[in-house]
Amino acid sequence: MKHFIRRCAAAGLALALTVTAASASYALGWDLHTGQVPLSQGATLGKNIFWSDSYSNLRHEYYISYTPNENVVPTVAYGSKVLDRLTLSSMAKSLENQGKRVVSGINGDWYVLSTGSTVGLLVTDGVVRATPYYNNAWAIGFNEDGTAFIGQPALSTNVTFGGATYKLSGAINKVRKITASDTSGGLTLLTSDFASTTQNTDPGVDVILTPVDDGTGAYATQPTIGKQVQYTVDQVLESTGSIAIPEGKAVLTMNAKDNADILAKLRALQPGDTVTLSITSTDERWNSVTQALGGTYKIVTDGKVVSSGLPSERTAWTAVGVKADGTVIFYTLDGKQSGYSVGCTLSQAAQRLVELGCVEAIAMDGGGSTTIGATYPDTDGMQVVNRPSDGSQRANSTAIFLTTTLQPTGELDSYYVTPTDSMLLSGATVQLSATGLDTSYYPTDGGTVSWSVSDGGGTVSESGLFTAGSTSGFCQVTATDGSHSGTAYLTTVATPDTITISNESTGSKVTSLNLNPGQQVNLKASATYRTLALTAQDTCFTWSLDPSLGTVDANGVLTASQNSGSGNLTISAGGKSVTIPMTIASHVKTLETCEGDLSAFQNTDTATAEAETGLDFVHNGKQSLKLSYDAASGSASLATTLAIPNGESWLGMWVYGNGSGNTLMATTADQDGQTQQFLLTALDFTGWKYVMVQLPAGAVSLSSLDVIYGGGAERQTGSIWLDQLVTANQQVTDTTAPTVSVSVKGTQLTATVKDDLDQTISQGNVTLTYDGEVLTGAWNESTGTLTATLPAADSGYHRVTVTASDASGNLARASADVQPSSSRTSPFGDMTGHWAEPYATFLYDQGISQGTGGATPQYQPNKNISRAEFFALVARWMDLDLEQYASVELPFADADAIPAWALNEIKAMYSLGILQGASSGGQLLANPMSTITRAEAITILGRTQARGFTANDLTFDDAGQVPSWALSYTEILVTQGVVSGNNNLIRPSDSITRGEVAKLLYAML
């Protein structure tokens, strides 16, 4: 006892700020919550949740407290046959189909897994359905008035025939064993309760018997403790195995390998002979039982836990105990479910039953078999109330129920208050309701009730709305009409263990917030104590937000400010808090990339749209929109059908001005079709300029782009170029490209794409190529991760590249190399050991360069490459259909000097705007046979790429020597890592060698 007191005192300190325990269980831990539900006359469902310090985990117990009475009686049940196995719910349904109301039920005794045969005693309606395997087994017996006792039946079962009496060593309704040396071998009596057949698997002697009813009541017609059953012999069979058991009859059976003398006596029986069965117990209490069921262990005797012989396994348990006043406890404790109930040892379960007042107790089957059910007053059938550790109900052999045949009386006797038990956070509310129950515990009309709170904090309104108080503790809320009452059991927790925030709309957990300016989100807070969910409303928590980030009300509705920023949202209750980092960020959404067919634009009499691919007039990608106008009437309008995303307030685009002095405007429409024209920019500049303006309020679509004549001479007509139209929630110019990283392990590629402004990058903005060919991968937009399976490595070199574009058209790329699967010999006779060998080999494998040809071709890596050779390599590298360009007219004065093997290639380069030629003496020259400089080669390759890649400043010592016309391309390719210097020199004016070209072409993929 002193140990118990010390433990209470120590743990009381830990619980002082949380739940003040009404009591603690020495066996199971600290009370977290308790509740009771009235089920029927003399029957109440109890529920307790404990916290175990030893395991830092929960324990859930459920039990029925039963005061014996004649209206609600214990009912032992099994399937239609003794060997059947059914779930508790299935057995309950069978009883309900018999017209009984199942008040509650628990699982029963052990059974043999292989056969379903119950191990202990089984008595229903006063009939012995099965005797125990072991003579010293314990059982619980129930009398007709519901009273119960626990004892050892120690039954003597004998049969008398042929002038002699023999012990039924094989017992009644147990699977027959093989030899007399087996403790359950010998004579066995099987009634039609057992199964449809004898289940015998070996030869034996079977005597079919019919019970005799002499009409005097001197004999029972079925096996009964304290009475005899007289049978007459129908047949004596030499059976080779199992035979049918006729309904209402019995079979006296013995294995053919068993006792020869007894077998001879059985064979000597004749039809009409008499066989008498006798079942007796030295404890006369068993003579009057109407229901009885064996148990696995006797666990409490004279109010003390049985000190030895109990298993130490920590699991779920089922038990039945009897208190000194006759009250019966049908007990279960869940187990093997961390975070819900970790179970206990059988000794702990016994100690708990002693704490509940039991002086005698017996254990039933546990583990996955442990199941308890109840029929609540407002339901029509039994439902399982615990959580079986198998995850579902196990089919068991037997069960004990409380049943009643009481019918509704309509006479008000009490109130059923729901919810019957709850755990609440301080300040939380729960609406209680009171339903009238009649004298048979069926719902009936009640009167007007008043509410009161006792044994704990909190308040309750006239309508039954309970509000948890500021201190932790248990309380009871009672509804009464002055004569009749009912109670709910509530627990208040002042300081939770955890606070969790979720999005009310999506239900997803929130650990951080990334919002747009002005965005509103409805947050929901929830709390747990010792992993148990607490009833709580958002108003139970204190919501605190950095003022610069916006506002949050008591219901968790957060409205972001109109300005970008970052900070914290803090939610607290009872000294516990959680902090959610929050960011308000601008975003950009792509409205029109100006790639593709430009179908969102419709020509009018005054303005037309066409695709522009000349790189000087493309800002992002490989195409822009060329807007040609005729504003002779004062204005020109190009119609559009661009829908503006909801919530967007700014419009941005790149405009290539023509210095006309005219004005570029736009017209939007709202949802009612009302239009409004607004200014984009004056066209008083030449070249590219980024324009971003605020949209008219309520704009849902962009209906036209308008050029207004500004009065300049001969400026009524002309062209301007537009590219990458976007919308945004704030005025923002995004010129920062995403970051891309790529890694390859074996055949598995993983790439990540991140952007400083766009929270997500859409799948259409991410491209994976393998040697320049598009390869399909799996894109996870939420994480910005691309995964793909690459072709298996072979004898060649390969290049994989991931290219990504953000909503503003900014491009970024990253690449990785795939090495040959084995050592590769160069196809060129002069490349072995050369630094450019992998790149030249790649060009050979791809059919781009065969070198000098012949049996052993030479690549000549250190030779300066001519312009014609370079253009031919680039054209083949681009995999162009050169026949498409055969009819192109070249403007070069030295076109005749172009060798035939490079003619179509140069025509293609010129047609695509990649080759522009050099001006000399008033003539445009291709200079096909001249060597090409590094700056020229970089410029040509740069023109093959889409526009929009980042161009960082050059840091080479000779960066100032890069020609202006090559500077942007050089910056881009250096930023991408395609071009690198040597000794911090880029040597822009030096001729480029064939080896250097091979590396550039490979790196550009």
TrEMBL record:
GO terms for molecular function: hydrolase activity, acting on glycosyl bonds. Gene3D superfamilies: Galactose-binding lectin. This is Phosphodiester glycosidase family protein. Residues 823-888, 889-955, 956-1005 form the SLH domain. It holds the Pfam family SLH. It comes from the Bacteria. Keywords: Glycosidase, Hydrolase, Repeat, Signal. It comes from Candidatus Flavonifractor intestinigallinarum. The lineage of its organism: Bacteria, Bacillati, Bacillota, Clostridia, Eubacteriales. PROSITE patterns: SLH. Residues 1-24 form the signal peptide.
